[in-house]
């Protein structure tokens, strides 16, 4: 029987072409030195390859003792380095054990030894060796798990180092003479305190919205949904508003509550660019002025209105008290894409929780098993890779680029290679793509108005298929429903005191950055983290 045949019979994952005799002894450093002995004549031949393979120092005595201690980045990196060294050493020990067992098997089956042993004895010896081999295989699996854990730790270290570099860079910029040292340091410190090492402060369903969060332009409706004679009611930061078009065709946004007896105005109608209340007929223009008051007369009646603007197919409002910013961001799909669907869906969760969910892709193979992630395998490591100043980046191993657009937008481009197959290619390597925009408007503390826009850079013919819109809505709702039951559950737990950001890990990077950004806004940081000007 050859060595190879013996190994195969015992399911050994090794192949040795010659029949070596191995001689092992402890090295001076505490590792193992291995010498291979070739040839029937017993001449000892040192094989430097084997020797170097096992001549590795046992690192266990040098591992830093840090259990339960809080480590800075350098100390943590040192621990990760020892982890890897230990995995390496351990894996070599496993191989060595299997090789020793293999050698024993060879000895048992040696034709010379066989002459002096009964079949019964040989069977017994082989059975004993099989048990030892099974144990060795178990050890190999444990080593595999250790390597996976060490890789996870390294990925986390990578995050920390990256965040540290980013913070150092911000500090350098904040310390320049052009900024105010006092406020800059304060804002930087506040960001440091919020770094994703530990649980994050989560504003959301349990606390009122911070007024500073209102000082942004918010998209609230698609232009195509606002005809000349229609109204679009919506809630924004816990207040009811209604959109309609004035005499000039420009959109206006006024409070959806009549000044007279608080009747909801959207139940009325639009006449000549004015909203008419359905109760007693008072009429309001786009700046909230009551311009008509049938059967009675009162001067200077006005309801609240918001700055309102239309750009690139969307209607935006400014709900904050600060003067509106001069520029609105562009949410257009990239060149070459055509918009195929624009949907508005009311979601019964706080907008931050929905954003956390949309900025996370690692949940897909567990949550979206009936829709887009059906049949996906679970990768050994999921990462969100982001350039230096990152609210945008791409997912590894998925061909998906993603960006958080302040204050409440998620933009993503998904590369499609084959239907239902996403892994293994970058977005650029895919020939066809789907672009998504999710706007998560804060309606109330437990309600989000989701504006969803879907664009494709292929199959323009789909736009001409009747009722396609209903199909897109059906798909979008199916995917959302898979998330919703989980996010509603998170919200319930938050209301009972749980923190949904108790233990962020490396693939939570983008969600954590959203929280860091939002906390900085609420704390009034002079310079917001991750902004493109950084
Ligand atoms: S409540 Fe609107 S006019 Fe009376
Ligand atoms: Fe999801």
From TrEMBL:
Start and end residues of each Rieske domain: 217-317
Top-level taxon of the source organism: Eukaryota
Compositional bias annotation for Low complexity: 176-187
GO function terms (MF aspect): 2 iron, 2 sulfur cluster binding; chlorophyllide a oxygenase activity; iron ion binding
Xref: InterPro entries: ARHD_Rieske_2Fe_2S, Cholesterol_7-desaturase, PaO, Rieske_2Fe-2S, Rieske_2Fe-2S_sf
Stretch list, region Disordered: 171-207
Any one GO cellular component localisation term in the record: chloroplast
Keyword Coiled coil: yes
Chain coiled-coil ranges: 119-146
Keyword entries, A-Z: 2Fe-2S, Chloroplast, Coiled coil, Iron, Iron-sulfur, Metal-binding, Oxidoreductase, Plastid, Transit peptide
Subcellular location: Plastid, Chloroplast
A Pfam family hit: Rieske
Major location category of this protein: plastid
Stated name of the protein: Chlorophyllide a oxygenase, chloroplastic-like
């Amino acid at each position: 029987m050859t060595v190879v045949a013996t190994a195969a019979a015992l399911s050994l994952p090794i192949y040795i072409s010659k029949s070596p005799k191995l001689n092992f002894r402890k090295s001076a450093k505490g590792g193992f030195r291995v010498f291979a002995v070739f040839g029937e004549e017993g001449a000892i031949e040192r094989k430097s390859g084997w020797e170097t393979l096992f001549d590795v120092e046992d690192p266990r005595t040098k591992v830093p003792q840090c259990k339960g201690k809080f480590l800075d980045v350098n100390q943590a990196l040192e621990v990760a380095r020892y982890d890897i060294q230990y995995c390496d050493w351990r894996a070599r020990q496993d191989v060595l054990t299997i090789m020793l067992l293999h050698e024993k098997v060879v000895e048992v089956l040696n034709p010379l030894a066989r002459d002096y042993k009964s079949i019964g004895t040989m069977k017994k010896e082989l059975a004993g060796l099989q048990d030892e081999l099974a144990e060795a295989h178990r050890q190999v699996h444990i080593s595999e798990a250790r390597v996976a854990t060490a890789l996870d730790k390294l990925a986390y270290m990578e995050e920390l180092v990256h965040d540290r570099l980013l913070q150092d860079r911000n500090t350098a910029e904040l310390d320049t003479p052009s900024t105010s040292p006092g406020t800059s340091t304060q804002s930087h410190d506040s960001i440091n305190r919020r770094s994703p090492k530990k649980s994050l402060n989560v504003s959301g369903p349990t606390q009122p919205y911070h007024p500073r969060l209102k000082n942004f332009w918010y998209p609230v409706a698609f232009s195509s949904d606002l005809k000349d004679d229609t109204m679009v009611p919506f809630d924004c930061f816990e207040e009811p508003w209604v959109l309609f078009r004035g005499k000039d065709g420009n959109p206006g946004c006024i409070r959806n509550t009549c000044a007279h007896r608080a009747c909801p105005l959207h139940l009325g109608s639009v006449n000549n660019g004015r909203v008419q209340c359905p109760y007693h007929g008072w009429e309001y223009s786009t700046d909230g002025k009551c311009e008509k008051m049938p059967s009675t007369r009162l001067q200077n009646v006005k309801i609240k209105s918001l700055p309102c603007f239309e750009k690139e197919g969307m209607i935006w409002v400014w709900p904050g008290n600060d003067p509106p910013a001069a520029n609105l961001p562009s949410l257009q799909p990239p060149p070459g894409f055509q918009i195929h669907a624009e949907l508005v869906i009311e979601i019964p969760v706080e907008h931050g929780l929905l954003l956390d969910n949309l900025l996370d892709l690692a949940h897909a193979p567990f949550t979206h098993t009936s829709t887009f992630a059906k049949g996906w395998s679970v990768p050994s490591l999921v990462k969100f890779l982001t350039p230096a100043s990152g609210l945008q980046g791409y997912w590894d191993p998925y061909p998906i680029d993603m960006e958080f657009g302040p204050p409440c937008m998620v933009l993503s481009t998904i590369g499609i290679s084959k239907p239902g197959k996403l892994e293994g290619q970058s977005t650029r390597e895919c020939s066809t793509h789907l672009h998504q925009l999710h706007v998560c408007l804060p309606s109330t503390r437990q309600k989000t108005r989701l504006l969803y826009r879907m664009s494709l850079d292929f199959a323009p013919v789909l736009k001409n298929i009747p009722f396609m819109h209903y199909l897109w809505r059906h798909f979008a709702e199916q995917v959302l429903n898979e998330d919703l039951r989980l996010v509603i559950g998170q919200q319930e737990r938050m209301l009972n005191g749980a923190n949904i950001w108790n233990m962020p890990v490396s693939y939570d990077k983008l969600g954590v950055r959203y929280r860091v950004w939002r906390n900085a806004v609420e704390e009034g940081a002079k310079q917001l983290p991750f902004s493109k000007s950084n």
